[in-house]
Amino acid sequence: MASATSLTTLEDEVNCPICQDILREPVTIDCGHNFCRGCLTRYCEIPGPGPGEQPTCPLCKDPFCPGGLRPNWQLASVVENIEKLKLAPPSGLEEDLCEEHEEKIYFFCEDDEKQLCVKCREALEHRTHTVRFLKDAADPYREQIHSCLESLKNERENIQGIQSRGDQRIRILLTQVATKRKRVISEFEHMCQFLERQQYLILTQLEELDGDILKQKNEFESLVQSEISRFNALISELEEKLKHPERKLLKDIRSTLFRCETRKCKKPEAVSPDLGERIRDFPQQALQLQREMKMFLDNTWICFLPPLLIYWVIFEKLLFELDYEPAHIFLDPQTSHPKLLLSEDHQRAQFSYKWQTSPDSPQRFDRAICVLAQVGFVGGRHTWVVTVDLAYGGSCTMGVVSQNVRRKGELRLRPEEGIWALRLAWGFVSALGSFPTRLSLEENPKQIRVSLDYEVGWVTFSNATTQEPIYTFTASFTGKIFPFFGLWGRGSSFSLSP
User: Fold this and answer.
1) Helix, strand, or coil here: 71?
2) Coil, strand, or helix at residue 102?
3) Residues 6+ apart with CB under 8 A from 447
4) Is residue 318 part of a domain?
5) Domain named RING-type: which ranges (predicted)?
6) How many domains does the chain have?
7) Which of 185, 195, 369, 393 could make an SS bond with 426 (beta carbons 3.0 to 4.6 A apart)?
8) How many CA atoms does the CB half-sphere of 408 hold within 13 Å?
9) Does the predicted model carry a pTM greater than 0.70?
């Protein structure tokens, strides 16, 4: 009795003040109090009384830094030993005896989820129930546990994959921002006082972007670690369950499996679309400065033109380096639908109701009137311009597709099928997402610039004449990505240029 009382006292000492349960992955904060890592993480996610204020300890209300959590390994070892003592059967008692009849337990009632001795088996309340021997009853549940473990491990691998891709995106974005900052500094150092104020403003914006990326990086890592901890706890629970004999394995087995089977991972996003748009559209913010410089040059005395023209050339070079690499696109006749007429230089296509004599092949589209570029991309930042000429209510589709996109039968134009595309029709423009989105534009562009940033996962469409952005898809690319084009309508055509 004294031993049981001591164990209960020890359990009270290692309880989490938040969940009132035994500590899981105990961590210590600045004031010295201990909490479950998961409980404290969720507590820190609750908005505070004011923006930017540090969270306070749930016990003493002293402020602490969420990033300064220290794992308490000694306390974790104490918790582990207490749990082992709780699992150990009391000395001098038979573990597999029925509490009511003190007979050895042989059976398991499927209907009541109870373990039965011979006398319990013959009782009236169990005569019509499904009763099996312990081993026969436990085997199907073991299979379910193995299946559930496999599913949970797959989910954990998925979230770890998301973490890896998210970290890669963050590194690329930080590198791009750092490169832009260095180029802006090196070029603007040689410009006159007219540009000094503009330099300061642009650098300030880059510093804000850098800080926002690092902030989202911390939030992303915290959420990913929280998800991994949840799945680690479930996997540990099931692995521990498998070590138990049949009687303990079958205890609360259905509720345990239900909790594990219904637990799906949250798939966090490393970079928010809003932040991505701000980084991607940063070169556009310099267009106002470009217009001011041109106006300044147009109104400057001839004696001042030579040095200022030098600065102008430097500035044009800066804008070009911050943009994408022009790509020379050629259409692939091996993939072209028979209703498309390709020019001899493979840079122009026209729709025709008359089918061309084209040999059938696995690479050729047979129902969707589409064509791919001859060369795809496995990295880098590339851009090309599509000049569209629509007649009689036709339409033109453009974008990028994955290498294994469907070539035969019906083709559904959406990201889930490996297609990120924009449709330009007579009178409207639509982004072909999971659900097509009709875009509100002041005028339908005749020249569309398509820009691909493979590592970050952006497919950006903009008006090639006015440089105004139209739409951006965000994806995680794997394998080769090909420029993609579709055409419909008598007399409709498109041509390509870098």
Assistant:
1) strand
2) coil
3) 385, 386, 387, 388, 463, 464, 465
4) no
5) 16-61
6) 2
7) 393
8) 4
9) no
Q: Which residues contact 420 (CB under 8 A, 6 or more apart)?
A: 399, 400, 401, 432, 459, 473, 475
Task: Read off the pLDDT of residues 1-54 as tens digits, 9 standing for 90 and up.
Answer: 445 555 666 677 788 888 888 888 889 888 888 889 888 888 888 776 566 677
DSSP code for 456: T
Residue with tokens 């949970």: 152
Side-chain half-sphere exposure of 380, counting CA atoms within 13 A: 12
CA distance 209 to 154: 34
- Minimal CA–CA distance to 43: which of 31, 59, 21? 59
Q: Which of 379, 389, 378 is nearest to 426 (CA)?
A: 389
What six digits make up the tokens of 41?
Answer: 């993480």
CB 470 within 8 A of CB 462: yes
Q: Please return the burial class of 442, using the count of CB atoms within 10 Å of its CB with bins 0-12, 13-18 and 19+.
A: exposed
Residue 159 tokens read as 């979230």
Taking alpha carbons only, the member of 468, 470, 474 closest to residue 284 is 468
Q: Is residue 312 situated within a structural domain?
A: no
Determine the Cα–Cα distance for residues 234 and 228; give it in Å rounded to an integer.
10
Structure tokens at 59: 């016990």
Q: Which of 334-350 are b and which e, b meaning 16 or more Cβ less than 10 Å from the residue's Cβ?
A: ebbbbbbebeeebebbb
End residue of a domain, out of 26, 61, 87? 87
Structural domain boundaries, residue 16 = 2-87
Dump pLDDT digits (tens) for 220-240: 888 888 888 888 888 888 888
Burial of 10 (0-12, 13-18, 19+ CB in 10 A): middle
Whether residue 19 contacts residue 35, with contact meaning beta carbons closer than 8 Å, is answered with no
